[in-house]
C-alpha cells in the first residue's frame, strides 16, 4: 500500500479488532488505481459513530447524525463513515434520513459514480460491485444505478460529474449525459456553496477544457448563478483557459470577460469568501495594468509575489501566452528596492525640503513618483540623488 494508505492502516486494524468491518473507500481507491496523487483517505465501516468515538482518542463529531466522524491519527484527519443508506434530500444539502446498515453493498450503492463506488480492504482486495474498475480503464463517468433517479435525489451529482470530467479527463457516459440534461434545471434548488465548492475543483482540474466543453454541450450554464441571466457569457470563457488554482483567479477571469458584472456581484452570487474577493481584486488590478503596460518592473514591484502564478495563469488563459511566473520572480530579484520602506528617503525627509509647504496629497504623489523612478532605475536609491531629483521635479503648486 502506498504512503497515505499505509498511515491509515492502524485505524482499520483497530476497528477490525473491535469486530467491525472497515475499508478504504471512494476517491482514494479511485486515485490509487489511476496512479494519481491521493488526496484524503476516507474509511467506511460497519461500526456506528458512537463506537468509533469510544475506541479512538481523538474524534471530531462532524456529522454524527449522518454517520460521519473524523478520526485524527498522527495529526492526519480521516473521515470515517458508517455504512448507510440514504433517504430523500429535501433540503438539497443532506439526506433527511440515513439508516445505518451492517453491509457495505448498500453503502456502495448510494455513491454517485461507479468510479467512486470502490472499496478496498487491508489486503488490497477491491470491492467493485458496479464495474467501476472497468470504467476507470475506459475513462468513463457513469452513475451507480439509474441516473434520472440519482440526479433527482441530489442534483449536485450533475455538477460532480462535470467536476470529475475536468479532473480526470474522462468521458461522460452518453446515457448519463442525457440524464444530466433532463434533470439539470434542479441544480437551482441547491445550496450555492455546494455548487461553488465543486466548481472550484472543476476550474482547477487538469482537463478543465474537457469539463467546460461538457457544460457547453449539456447547457448546464443556464442554471448557474449569473450565467443563467447572461446566456452568452459562458461561451466567452476562452478556449485557451488553463487550470486555475484558486477561485479568486476564476472570479478575476470571469469579471475580465464581462466588465459589467462586478467582482462583488460574482462573490455575492457564488457565496465566496472575502479572501476570494481580495484575490480577485488584486489579480484584476494587475491584469489591467498589464493590458496597457505589459510586464514591467512596476508590475512586478507592486504585485505581491504570492500572486505571480495566478497572474500568469490568467494572462496565459486570455492570451494563450507563455508568461512564466519564474520570470516574474527573477525580475523581482533584480529590483533595486522591494518596498517603499527601502527607499533612501521617507515622507518627513521630503517634507523637510519644503518647510513652507503643508503636508498633503502632494507628498504621497511625490513619494510614488520617486518610488517609480527608482524601480525603473531612472534614479539611484541614494539620499543625495533623490534630493537632487526632487529639486528638478518640485511639487506642483496647488
Ligand atoms: P476528491 O479527491 O476530490 O476528494 P472524492 O471522490 O473523494 O474526490 P468527495 O467529495 O470527497 O469526492 O466524496 C467522497 C466520496 O463520497 C465519493 O467518492 C463518493 O463515493 C461519495 N460521495 C460524495 N458526494 C456524493 C454525492 N453527492 N452523492 C453520492 N455519493 C457521494
Ligand atoms: Mg475526498
From TrEMBL:
Catalytic activity entry: a tRNA with a 3' CCA end + 2 CTP + ATP = a tRNA with a 3' CCACCA end + 3 diphosphate; a tRNA precursor + 2 CTP + ATP = a tRNA with a 3' CCA end + 3 diphosphate
A Pfam family per the record: PolyA_pol_RNAbd
Needed co-factor(s): Mg(2+)
GO terms for biological process, alphabetical: RNA repair; tRNA 3'-terminal CCA addition
Start and end residues of each tRNA nucleotidyltransferase/poly(A) polymerase RNA and SrmB- binding domain: 169-214
Listed Gene3D superfamilies: 1.10.246.80, 1.20.58.560, Beta Polymerase, domain 2, cca-adding enzyme, domain 2
UniProt binding sites for Mg(2+): 40, 42
Record-linked CDD domains: NT_ClassII-CCAase
Enzyme Commission number(s): 2.7.7.72
Residues engaged in binding CTP: 27, 30, 111, 154, 157, 160, 163
Listed GO MF terms: ATP binding; CCA tRNA nucleotidyltransferase activity; CCACCA tRNA nucleotidyltransferase activity; magnesium ion binding; tRNA binding
Alphabetic keyword roster: ATP-binding, Magnesium, Metal-binding, Nucleotide-binding, Nucleotidyltransferase, RNA repair, RNA-binding, Transferase, tRNA processing
Domain called Poly A polymerase head: residue spans: 22-142
Residues annotated for ATP binding in this entry: 27, 30, 111, 154, 157, 160, 163
InterPro entries: Bact_CCA-adding_enz_type3_sf, CCA-adding_enz_C, CCA-adding_enz_firmicutes, NT_sf, PolA_pol_head_dom, PolyA_RNA-bd
Main enzyme class: transferase
Domain of life: Bacteria
Record's miscellaneous remark: A single active site specifically recognizes both ATP and CTP and is responsible for their addition.
Function noted in UniProt: Catalyzes the addition and repair of the essential 3'-terminal CCA sequence in tRNAs without using a nucleic acid template. Adds these three nucleotides in the order of C, C, and A to the tRNA nucleotide-73, using CTP and ATP as substrates and producing inorganic pyrophosphate. tRNA 3'-terminal CCA addition is required both for tRNA processing and repair. Also involved in tRNA surveillance by mediating tandem CCA addition to generate a CCACCA at the 3' terminus of unstable tRNAs. While stable tRNAs receive only 3'-terminal CCA, unstable tRNAs are marked with CCACCA and rapidly degraded.
HAMAP family according to UniProt: CCA_bact_type3
Subunit structure of this chain's protein: Homodimer.
PANTHER family: CCA TRNA NUCLEOTIDYLTRANSFERASE 1, MITOCHONDRIAL
Family: Belongs to the tRNA nucleotidyltransferase/poly(A) polymerase family. Bacterial CCA-adding enzyme type 3 subfamily.
Official protein name in the record: CCA-adding enzyme
Organism encoding this protein: Oceanobacillus halophilus
Lineage: Bacteria, Bacillati, Bacillota, Bacilli, Bacillales
